[in-house]
């Protein structure tokens, strides 16, 4: 007896959903119309009847990440779709709809969840891709082994910008095309120039690179709040990262690593420019500061719009 499939209903911009669907279907053609959807329940459980029904058809492969901060239910899932099948193509449309819904600035600010994380294309078996994800997610950092959630759509594009070309290829591994929705809801895609190169799982992350990786998290925290207050503004996350990163690294080099302070510092860099902290007035103020609490008066002063006058002096 065949199980009845859940009805798929879309609530978003149908024209945009269909345009993205068509592009993904084109990407899928050289791969026998196979598409692998990345699902990420890390922040909250993925309670979805349509996705749940596909477990019973053995369409979903769990990435077995062995890290104490990742419980079994928080592990990424890889959903394999055959886009020649009408229902599975509708499932693809559904995942795009859900991804766009989650990107609503108000929703993202409240929930921070992006369950529907991307769509990848490869000739490699999904089990091997799962193994690659598992290996890559645990990185030997400067002082300890840490979780690298590279598959998070808020992380991957920015991560690619700070890795050199060799490490970019290594990160993509056996994946030949990686697609996702950026924070504006536009389709981002990256082609891998050398899929299937020798793969070890370790990126060789130095102390400097680890500090740059931390800037991605600060950038995302800043942008989450910024987008809530400016929902119609288009923002390139990678450009934002490049703008805030220099002053963040300079502040970290002084021993200030408090995330709340760094987010406020990022806000000022986005507003006043990447080198605002090199102004003699700022340099003079921060040279004797010991804790994040010493920054309160300076932060309040620099939020004021007439700070531009002082910057130009």
TrEMBL record:
<protein>
    <recommendedName>
        <fullName>DUF4123 domain-containing protein</fullName>
    </recommendedName>
</protein>
